[in-house]
Amino acid sequence: MNILKIDNLTVKIDDKVILKDFNLEIKSGEIHAIMGPNGTGKSTLTKVIMGDKNYKIVKGKISYNGKVINDMPVNERAKLGIFLGMQMPLAIEGVTNADFLRSALRAKEGDNFKLLSFIREVDLLTKKLHMDSDMIHRGINDGFSGGERKKNEILQMNILKPDVVLLDEIDSGLDVDSLKLVGQAVMDYYNEKKPAILLVTHYQRLLDYIKPDFVHIMNDGKIVISGDSSLALKVEKEGYDKVGKCDE
Questions:
Q1: Which of 48, 59, 110, 204 makes the best surface tag, with the fewest CB within 10 Å?
Q2: What is the per-residue pLDDT for 246?
Q3: How far apart are CA 51 and CA 39, in angstroms?
Q4: Which residues of the chain fall short of a pLDDT of 70?
């Protein structure tokens, strides 16, 4: 069983403290949803787990299967099996989706990489996600809409097969049909691989498709209340100001 554990983590960017004595443990086969008002540190959490150098860990630790990864570079975390689906994926001209995915998968699998299997899987996934077939041969997210960029993140997740999946507002920019497609693709991957999943979202609607085992409400850089999926419904009905005494 893989375990991602965060102990008493305090993080700042420039001189502003974002996360404050944050604690969380996620095991293989668990889906955790993080919700909370804007500016509480939800996206920061995913970036710090992935190793974003813009954030400084003041104290505390992030460990994966007992190994502290605070100082581990992003590429090494990716090789460990940690994946981040970003809130605002960047466009990269000159590097096609196919080239990027092929290189990343080859780096992960080494001599076990099989080109034909890769091509077949990409073809199946683009059809499943209702992505235009030419997107795989275009620059990464180059000219993609917000929804297309999010589908592209889910395509990458399925190809790279991580053990820990961090999804930062993967629902933003998606229409109703695309949200259902993305949610189903995530759950299909979950049912196949049983990864640890951490979702950051503002909306209950995503949780209609990706069913969390635990829901955590953040405020002021830390978790203030945790519960099961019913907690998200309560937030939608009552707002953060009443649930967990969060101040918007």
A1: 110
A2: 52
A3: 19
A4: 244-248
Q: How far is CA 187 from the centre of its chain?
A: 13
State the Cα–Cα distance between residues 163 and 214, nearest whole angstrom.
18
The answer to whether the beta carbons of residues 146 and 173 sit under 8 Å apart is yes
Write phi, then psi, for 162 (nearest 5 degrees): -75, 160
Contact 84, 168 (CB under 8 A): yes
Output the pLDDT for position 173.
81
Q: Which tokens is 94 given? A: 């000159």
SS3 149: helix
Q: How far apart are the first and last CA of the chain?
A: 37
Q: Is 80 exposed, middle or buried (0-12, 13-18, 19+ CB in 10 A)?
A: middle
Q: Are 50 and 35 in contact (CB under 8 A)?
A: no
Structure-block tokens of residue 70: 């605070």
Domain map (residue ranges) of the chain: 3-245
Which structure tokens are listed for 112? 């076990």
pLDDT tens digits, 103-147: 999 988 889 999 999 999 999 999 999 999 889 999 999 989 888
Q: Note the Cα 210 to chain centre separation in Å.
A: 13
**What's the distance, CA 34 to chain centroid?**
11
Kind and range of the H or E element at 101? helix 97-109
The CATH homologous superfamily for domain 3-245 is P-loop containing nucleotide triphosphate hydrolases (3.40.50.300)
Q: How far is CA 24 from the centre of its chain?
A: 15
